[in-house]
Amino acid sequence: MAALGLRARVALAAAVAIAVAVALLGVAVLAVLRHELDGALDRSLRARAVEVARLSAATPRLLLAPGALEGRLGGSALFVQVIDRRGRIVARSAGLGGRLVPDGPATRAALRGRRAAYADGVLGTDPVRIYAAPLGELGRGPAAGGAVVLAGTTRDIDDVVDTTRRLVLVCSLGAAILAAALATLLSRRALRPLGRLASGARAIERSGDASERLPVPPAHDEVGTLAATLNAMLASLERAREAERRFVGDASHELRTPLTALRGNAAYVARHGADPAALADLEADAARLSALLDDLLALAREDAAAPAAGELVDLAALARAAAEDPEVDVDAADPVPVRGERQALERAVGNLVANARRHGPPGGRITVTAACAGDRARISVADEGPGLAPADAERAFERFWRGPQARGDGSGLGLAIVRAIAERHGGAVRVEGACFTIDLPAAPVTELSRSPRTTTAS
């Protein structure tokens, strides 16, 4: 089955299912048919036995008259045999010829037990259904106190059942063949869009161009949903590839500047000897390069890391830790618990404070606020500067982006790292003017109180 194609498996499954269903229906029909035909035969035998009993009671001499016991069941002969109380034959159907109705349990039940009974037997080469009923004492005829034994052939019933069985078998095979053909046709039409999707995917694989798109079928079904999902994935891959190209280009440009300065200062020292100014420049260039590489590694780690689950972290404690800087004011009276990685969240808050210090007015105050709002935990960092314009706020968290009023030698990665950390913790970061806010899912305060070791900033 595993080696068969999807189309063949669907056709085979449909054929087997239809064949089994028709076969089960046929078995049920045969059982009902056999039961009804056997019941009709039993009722006919019983009705004929009542007629013979009446004849024996009313005019017993007629039992001996030729043709009195003859009868038919449909198109088959009905055999009648009348016996006295000792089991001796009193009268019998001419159709029996030299044969005798088998003396079985039904006859013994009628003679000895004085009760009617059915039995199956064989008359010559014909299977028969036997019915024996006791005769009353009325009439004082030769059969008084005896029994009437009737036999009706079941060959016609067997023929009807056999014919029906063959018909069911033929219908089952025909239905299976028809189901396989229809399933093949329908699966071919249903899988045709998948074939086009596979061809389009192979073409994109060969070209390596993530900007290409797969054909979307006009029908709004599961295949159309699959095509739309794959196209959305290709669009995401295209954006990721473009972001990677932009990141590599920006990183190359940003790394080139401190490396060029570092090489220039090193060449100056090699030619003119070391002096305090040159050594200070070398040290500054090395520190700038180190900070840039550290930011790049931090951003790469955030991109590759799994979603954070981690330990309980109190954002209020992180805010109070930032108050060690004399320029920072803190508004965080109540605990603000979240689940995450303490070091990553510390870095995010530290980056926001460093950003406020770098872009706020000289000597201005920085305010760090931590609070819960429903099921959300927020920590905000604001400076006293004019903040970002709405157009710049949309680009503030892009990698290597620096505002037109930026001061200092920042890498342009600090806010991008903040966004990556917030998103990995299931939250987001936004900016309104000079206030940057990290919004995260809050953990219940009761968990923070029950925790044997509350995680705070060190």
CATH superfamily of the largest domain: PAS domain
Strand count = 13
Largest sheet descriptor: 6 strands, antiparallel
The gross shape turns out to be: rod-shaped
Q: Report the uncertain regions.
A: 452-458
Rg over CA atoms, rounded to whole Å, is: 50 Å
> Roughly how many Å apart are the termini?
62 Å
Number of helices: 10
Structure description:
The protein is an alpha+beta fold. The protein has 3 domains: about 5-160, Beta-Lactamase (2-Layer Sandwich), CATH 3.30.450; about 220-300, Orthogonal Bundle (Helix Hairpins); about 305-450, 2-Layer Sandwich (Heat Shock Protein 90), CATH 3.30.565. The chain is about 50% helix and about 15% strand. It contains 10 helices and 13 strands. The strands form 3 sheets. Strands 1, 2, 3, 4, 5 and 6 form a 6-stranded antiparallel sheet that branches. Strands 8-10-11-13-12 form a 5-stranded mixed sheet. The radius of gyration is 50 Å and the shape is rod-shaped. It starts with 5 loop residues before the first helix and ends in an 8-residue tail after the last helix.
Give the secondary structure arrangement, pairings included.
Blueprint: H1 6-58, E1 72-73, E2 76-83, E3 89-92, H2 105-111, E4 117-123, E5 126-134, E6 147-153, H3 155-207, H4 222-272, H5 276-304, E7 311-314, H6 315-322, E8 328-331, E9 337-340, H7 342-359, E10 366-373, E11 376-382, H8 390-393, H9 414-424, E12 428-432, E13 435-441, H10 445-450
Parallel strand pairs: 8-10
Antiparallel strand pairs: 1-2, 2-3, 2-6, 4-5, 5-6, 7-9, 10-11, 11-13, 12-13
Helix pairs in contact: 1-3, 4-5, 5-9, 6-7, 7-9
